[in-house]
């Protein structure tokens, strides 16, 4: 449906022709340009809408984030992560009965296959937990061949029960994989999930229980983490969600899709910025060093990590909520001195002309790293925590895309390579023309630790 009477008028001065392109919900149909022999060049999809979605809404100028029309502040205040997951995936908040069934179904899918446990145990003792989780998600596809589109045909997901079963499985099992990766790293036996607890309490139980028979995670910490999962659950077409949609368009099963999305999240520019923000605060070290650091930032020698956002040109609403959660967590775990540096840094930055002019405000990563650290999580586990929350958002996009099938994603490129040329036989090639591969050679092996030789 076009916006009543709104068109973009384009004159092609190659032909002198005028074209009226209908404007629909602030977008124009890029395929119209194909008729003119043109494609849109948009390096990195910075201004390209690749789907219509009803899941989350962001107004970056006003600092608004809504899931299915509900403000993130209201959801963080009043809902649980599983309620929000239901909302994201099915479009509305559940009734009491629906919520109970939903929670029961998910908590019944928290166990993982024994061979999957063996698989996780086969990783090196110091394996990055995100590497373990992404690999395990991909491996999980082989444990559920009845859910494989490659084996069962692309139409299996026309069956709603089949769709829901994979959603229960993935939301249920991701925290178990995450907890195994955590325990592996610290050399402790993996805990089985316990259905005595709610979703996030069970996750903390799997992480922390030692030999106690009646171990009960701190309910206030569990609530704080549950809210953090809500804040991370969806953020429209961020890089990993776009990866999820791209993989979904191939028809591959959701385990593999999720492995792809989680792998994108693993990248330091996406799921790892909170670690960078935390390192920056540690490097600043004390409040007295802040003015010098700010000067370096303004001289463009440094970036203020955890500040600025591609979409938000105002205070990230998630950062506001996290700031409140940090007080709650410090009350339980003890105050982390880095928070004083963070608060003072924020105060100075928000009153400094350099940051005001560029609309640089704290983003979600500014406070989340300090909270995770105060909770005792190792830094390389931060993206795994992000992944648990974002799993619901990825699945909401998978679910939405199954209902509005789109062709396989196939972006265009603008070719700028060699013109057609004649093949050169091996004997006739010159060293000057052939690119040299940069390599350290065999001597580099001398630097490897003995157990990798
Ligand atoms: N510190 C200092 N200056 C900054 C910062 C920052 N964090 N971010 C942007 N600027 C400045 C730039 O130097 C530039 O200044 P100029 O106009 O004088 O050249 C101006 O603000 C605009 O910068 P861009 O890089 O064009 O802004 P963009 O919107 O593309 O960048 C980004 C967004 C990448 C997030 C950036 O703000 C940044 O690097 N922030 C720090 C890293 C970070 O916290 N990332 C997490 C993002 S949230 C997430 O992914 C979940």
Could you explain how this protein is built, in words?
The protein has 453 residues and is mostly helical. It has three domains: 7-59, no CATH class; 70-270 and 379-403, Citrate Synthase, domain 1; 273-374, Orthogonal Bundle (Cytochrome p450-Terp, domain 2). The protein contains 19 helices and six strands. The protein has helices spanning 31-35, 72-78, 81-90, 96-107, 114-121, 129-143, 149-152, 160-185, 199-208, 219-232, 239-248, 254-266, 273-284, 290-298, 317-333, 338-351, 353-357, 364-374, 382-403, and strands spanning 7-12, 17-24, 27-28, 56-59, 64-67, 70-71. Strands 1-2-3 form a three-stranded antiparallel β-sheet, with no helix packed on it. Strands 4-5-6 form a three-stranded antiparallel β-sheet. The chain binds acetyl coenzyme *A. Acetyl coenzyme *A is lined by residues 270, 273, 297, 303-310, 358, 360, 363-365. Acetyl coenzyme *A (ACO) is lined by residues 270, 273, 297, 303-310, 358, 360, 363-365.
């Amino acid at each position: 449906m076009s916006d009543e009477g709104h068109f973009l008028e384009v004159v092609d001065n190659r032909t002198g022709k005028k074209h009226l392109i209908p404007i629909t919900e602030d977008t124009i149909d890029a395929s119209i340009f194909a008729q003119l022999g043109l494609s849109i060049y948009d390096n990195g999809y910075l201004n390209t809408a690749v789907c219509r979605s009803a899941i989350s809404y962001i107004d970056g100028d006003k600092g608004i984030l809504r899931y299915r029309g509900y403000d993130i502040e209201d959801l963080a205040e009043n809902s649980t992560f599983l309620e929000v997951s239901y909302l994201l995936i099915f479009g509305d908040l559940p009734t009491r009965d629906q919520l109970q069934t939903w929670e029961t179904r998910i908590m019944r899918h928290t166990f993982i296959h024994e061979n999957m446990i063996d698989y996780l145990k086969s990783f090196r003792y110091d394996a990055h937990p995100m590497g373990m989780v992404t690999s395990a998600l991909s491996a999980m596809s082989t444990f559920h061949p009845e859910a494989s589109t490659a084996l069962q045909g692309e139409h299996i997901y026309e069956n709603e029960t089949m769709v829901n079963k994979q959603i229960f499985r993935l939301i249920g099992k991701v925290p178990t994989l995450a907890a195994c990766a955590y325990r592996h790293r610290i050399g402790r036996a993996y805990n089985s999930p316990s259905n005595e607890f709610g979703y996030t309490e069970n996750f903390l139980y799997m992480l922390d229980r030692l030999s106690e028979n009646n171990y009960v995670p701190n309910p206030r910490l569990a609530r704080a983490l549950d809210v953090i999962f809500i804040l991370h659950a969806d953020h429209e077409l961020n890089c990993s969600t776009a990866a999820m949609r791209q993989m979904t368009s191939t028809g591959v099963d959701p385990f593999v899709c999720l492995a792809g999305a989680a792998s994108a999240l693993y990248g330091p520019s996406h799921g790892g910025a909170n670690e960078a923000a935390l390192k920056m605060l540690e490097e600043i070290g004390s409040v007295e060093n802040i003015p010098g650091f700010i000067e370096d930032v303004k001289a463009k020698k440094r970036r203020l990590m955890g500040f600025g956002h591609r979409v938000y040109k105002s205070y990230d609403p998630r950062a506001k909520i996290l700031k409140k959660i940090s007080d709650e967590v410090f009350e339980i775990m003890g105050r982390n001195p880095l928070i004083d540096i963070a608060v003072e840094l924020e105060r100075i930055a928000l009153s400094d002309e350099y940051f005001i002019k560029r609309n640089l405000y704290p983003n979600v990563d500014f406070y989340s790293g300090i909270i995770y650290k105060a909770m005792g999580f190792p830094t390389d586990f931060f993206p795994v925590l992000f992944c648990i929350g974002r799993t619901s958002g990825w699945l909401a996009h998978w679910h939405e895309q199954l209902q509005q099938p789109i062709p396989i994603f196939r972006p265009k490129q603008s070719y700028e390579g060699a013109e057609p040329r004649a093949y050169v036989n091996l004997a006739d090639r010159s060293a000057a023309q052939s690119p040299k591969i940069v390599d350290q050679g065999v001597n580099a092996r001398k630097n490897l630790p003995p157990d990798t030789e």
